[in-house]
Structure formats: structure tokens, C-alpha cells
Amino acid sequence: MARPDKRLYFLLIALAARTRADCLGRRVGAVIVRDDRVLSTGYNGTPFGMPNCSEGGCHRCLHRGEEAPYLRGGAYDVCLCVHAEQNAILTAARFGQQTLGAGLTSTTQPCFGCLKEMLQAGISEVRYLHPWDPQEAYGDPALAAQYAALRSRFSVFEQVGDPAADTPGLFAPFLS
């Protein structure tokens, strides 16, 4: 097996972090790195002390599949869960890790809110495995334009890896 380059290595760490996510919709993992060193990881789920999604802690997950008012890929402001990117930033802050000039790799292209928070935290590079279309998610050309303006502020904003390689059995040998 070939040795992965650093971008793929960090993506593999984000994929491993994702195994801890408890969201019943999309499980996401993230890693923050600076100077090619891991500062923190994060995965999406309910805040500390709250029941997990699988335990009914998130109203959105609890009512998944029902006729609900939530936009697919949007309306995250009404979701109890903390995003993987947010958790990685907050974990870095909790343990005194400076994120100014750092890069973040996520298993999914970050949402609008996470992009704002990454800019505020000084993240300069963003990489992700699974893309999504902000126009489709938000259904509003003005919001999609604002998303594009946010993403243009990063020195790197790119897809990394092959989404087709992300199969349900990716980590199966390690989870038994």
C-alpha cells in the first residue's frame, strides 16, 4: 500500500473522526492542522451532556423522514447538533491550540455557518471530500453568492480525495 500524501493523510484522520459521529442523517468528521501537525479533530453530534441523536437528543434527527420543515442541506441553525468543523475549532480553543493560519479538512464541504466560523478562527485552507451545491441547499441565489464570497476568502478551498472510495466498509476491519 502506498504511503498517502499529507492531504490524504489528514483526510483519513477526518474519516476516522467521523466514526464517532452519532447523527442519524450525515456523519461528518474534521481535522485542523497547522505546520503539517494535527491540532484537533471533531465530529458532528449533540453538545456535551445532551442525549445523542440515536437517543432522541436531536429533534431534527428524531423526525428524519417525516414531513418536516427542514431544508435538505440547510436550516442548520435549528439543529441542536454541533458540526464537526465547529467541534474541531472549539476543541482547539478548549486546549489552547492557535488556529490562525491553520488548515481544516472535512469529510463534507462545510456549510455557510461553518465557513464564517472558520474565517473568524483564522483558518486559511479548507479541504473536503464530499461536495455539495449551496444553490441547491439554500435555494436562494443571494445566499449562494454570499457562500461564494466566503469561500473566496480562503487561500485554498478544494476537494481532496475520491468520494467513490468512501464506502460503508472503509473502516469495517477496525470496528469489529
What does this molecule look like?
The chain is α/β, with parallel strands linked by helices. It has 6 helices and 5 strands; from the N terminus they run αββααβαβααβ. Strands 2-1-3-4-5 form a 5-stranded mixed β-sheet. Helix 4 runs parallel beside helix 6. It is globular, with a radius of gyration of 16 Å.
The gist of it:
This protein has helices at 6-18, 59-62, 84-94, 112-121, 134-138, 141-151, and strands at residues 29-34, 37-43, 103-108, 125-130, 156-159. It is an alpha/beta fold and 176 residues long. The chain has a five-stranded mixed sheet.
Defining traits:
31% helix; five-stranded mixed beta sheet; 176 residues; alpha/beta
Report the biggest beta sheet as strand number plus sense, adding barrel if it closes.
5 strands, mixed
Task: Report the count of strand segments.
Answer: 5
Characterize the overall form.
globular
Q: Name the strands of the widest sheet in spatial order.
A: 2-1-3-4-5
Mean of residue pLDDT? 89
Strand content: 15-25%
Name the helicity range. 25-40%
Low-confidence stretches: none
What's the helix-strand series?
Answer: HEEHHEHEHHE
How far is the N terminus from the C terminus? 22 Å
Please tally the helical runs, counting DSSP H or I stretches of 4 or more residues. 6
- Any idea what the radius of gyration is? 16 Å
Structural class: alpha/beta
